[in-house]
């Protein structure tokens, strides 16, 4: 924080409702939802939970597509759903914003008015997404409807661009971040299929691409007053700029996807002061193979990071699809999920089972360490002042082991884990002796950690029911879990032991059980398709 700005204050500039919008004077932590409803008077977007769980505030963000064939790319734009309630307005700088009001504009420009209506009072047809909701009775109270419509619109644009249509399960996955309390999901899923039967109405991306190209986002240095002081929002464009700025302002709040920090403001009313936003640093979003490892930049979205892991380890698909919701996975980052240090985070157990290393940077100095060593205690880690998480490195050799991940929660979709486990096991060639094993758990201690005693009970031993029984007993020495609103201590320990049993059932050398025999979700279409493709 500072009392004055040394640089000219830049406005926040983004594309909205057919034009470039300039915004100044709003505090850096003003949410996109509040700006839409209170300043722009676009009240179609609703406020429900105000923490990114219910989806009533779902909007679509567009950015220039760097890869025309990447998931979410639509004719030069990358379109992704996000929760407006937890996105800070300055994060929109250089992007395009689409809300439910834009669908009316699309129809006004592409659809003929209904016959018989006077020109002065012309009534234009609804967008196919909206008309399908009407046809299929997909709305009752209507409060959640704009959020559902925007999620369906993103799906509609993606599949229209590819010339495909989603399966019913793909629609359910796309809508897993939108909650409805009165209509029920069957008619909404019906609408998701029906919308492709209606005359097509497509987004004209050309003017949007032209506008974003003209914006030339070279980074943002925004500031606005809060009482007698000035709070800054810095959005560097390169990792060198980020590193220098972090050293200069070691106490500034780092911000990536805002899926956690946004709640600090909305629910805890924290005063963040100066903010350094990493979301515009392209180098931080890298996901690529480098020599013998998969490198995941700390700014890569959860969707991109898990997508790359699942491409190489298909057994992780279930945890990927059940991690929060699409709007959260589009905005949130794997690096942020790891750096956050929550003991119930879903990424760290998976990464620990794969022997991932975390890469830290301060200025020009870069260092690495095994991910388990990064966590010191509850919400405490190895980061030094001026240092930040630059990336994660997963050795490709670890992916050749038998890998499993299990998420235990009260709801199947969009829920916080009571327990999450990441396992990997490797047997000696030609035998049933355990050569290496990784048993990592979240929700069992003050930090995500590996079960050292249970692992030691297995290494060098035959992979048998007797060895598993010994490992299950050893697990009680590794963890003394707590009871809370999600699960009791006894439940957590018993489930953790049972998951080791399940790992053995699925990977034993004789008569290993297939996924259909060990998962109640095995009948879900995306799991069946995975089994058919991978032979799991």
Describe it for me?
By secondary structure, the protein is of the alpha+beta class. Helix content is 34%, strand content 21%. It is built from 20 helices and 21 strands. The strands form five sheets. It has a six-stranded mixed β-sheet with strand order 2-1-6-3-5-4. A hairpin with a 6-residue loop joins β19 (419-427) and β20. α3 (128-135) packs across α6. The longest helix is centred in the last third of the chain and has 19 residues, at 489-507. The chain is globular, with a radius of gyration of 24 Å. Mean pLDDT is 92; it is low at 1-6.
Strand tally: 21
* Rg computed from alpha carbons, rounded to a whole number of angstroms: 24 Å
**Helix and strand composition category:** alpha+beta
Helix content: 25-40%
- Major sheet characteristics: 6 strands, mixed
Order of adjacent strands in the largest pleated sheet = 2-1-6-3-5-4
Strand-residue proportion: 15-25%
Runs with pLDDT <50, length 5+? Answer: 1-6
**Intertermini distance:** 54 Å
- Helical segment tally? 20
Spatial shape: globular
Average pLDDT across residues?
Answer: 92
């Amino acid at each position: 924080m500072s009392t004055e700005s040394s640089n000219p204050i830049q406005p926040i500039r983004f594309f909205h409702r057919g034009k470039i919008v300039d915004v100044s004077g709003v505090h850096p932590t003003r949410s996109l939802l509040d700006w839409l409803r209170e300043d722009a008077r676009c009240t179609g977007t609703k406020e429900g939970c105000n923490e990114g769980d219910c989806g009533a505030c779902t909007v679509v963000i567009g950015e220039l597509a760097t890869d025309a064939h990447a998931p979410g790319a639509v004719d030069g734009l990358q379109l992704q759903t996000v929760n407006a309630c937890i996105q800070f307005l300055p994060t929109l700088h250089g992007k395009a914003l689409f809300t439910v009001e834009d669908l009316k504009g699309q129809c006004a420009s592409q659809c003929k008015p209904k016959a018989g209506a006077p020109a002065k009072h012309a009534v234009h047809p609804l967008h196919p997404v909206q008309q399908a909701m009407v046809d299929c009775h997909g709305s009752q109270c209507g409060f959640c409807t704009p959020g559902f419509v925007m999620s369906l619109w993103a799906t509609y644009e993606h599949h229209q661009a590819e010339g495909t249509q989603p399966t019913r399960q793909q629609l359910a996955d796309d809508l897993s971040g939108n909650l409805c309390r009165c209509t029920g999901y069957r008619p909404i899923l019906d609408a998701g299929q029906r919308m492709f039967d209606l005359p097509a109405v497509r987004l004209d991306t050309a003017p949007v691409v032209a506008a974003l190209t003209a914006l030339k986002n070279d980074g943002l240095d925004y500031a606005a007053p809060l009482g007698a002081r000035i709070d800054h929002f810095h959005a560097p464009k390169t990792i060198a700029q980020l590193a220098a700025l972090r050293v200069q302002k070691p106490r500034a709040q780092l911000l990536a996807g805002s899926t956690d920090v946004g709640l600090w403001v909305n629910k805890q009313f924290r005063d963040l002061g100066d903010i350094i936003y990493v979301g515009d640093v392209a180098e931080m979003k890298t996901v690529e193979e480098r020599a013998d490892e998969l490198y995941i930049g700390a700014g890569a979205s959860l969707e991109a990071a898990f997508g790359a892991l699942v491409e190489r380890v298909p057994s992780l698909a279930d945890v990927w699809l059940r991690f929060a919701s699409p709007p959260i996975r589009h905005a949130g980052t794997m690096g942020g999920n790891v750096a956050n240090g929550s003991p119930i985070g879903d990424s760290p157990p998976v990464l620990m089972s794969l022997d991932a290393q975390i890469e830290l940077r301060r200025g020009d100095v870069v260092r690495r360490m095994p991910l388990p060593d990064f966590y010191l205690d509850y919400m405490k880690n190895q980061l030094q002042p001026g240092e930040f998480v630059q990336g994660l490195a997963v050795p490709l050799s670890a992916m050749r082991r038998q890998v499993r991940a299990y998420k235990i929660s009260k709801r199947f979709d969009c829920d916080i884990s009571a327990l999450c486990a990441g396992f990997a096991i490797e047997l000696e060639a030609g035998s049933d002796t355990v050569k290496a094993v990784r048993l990592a758990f979240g929700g069992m201690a003050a930090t995500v950690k590996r079960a050292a005693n249970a692992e030691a009970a297995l290494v060098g031993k035959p992979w048998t029911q007797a060895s598993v029984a010994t490992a299950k007993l050893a697990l009680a020495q590794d963890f003394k879990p707590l009871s809370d609103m999600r699960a009791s201590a006894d439940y957590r320990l018993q489930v953790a032991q049972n998951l080791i049993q399940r790992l053995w059932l699925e990977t034993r050398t004789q008569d290993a059980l297939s996924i259909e025999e060990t998962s109640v979700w095995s009948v879900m279409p995306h799991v069946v398709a995975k089994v058919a493709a991978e032979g799991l």
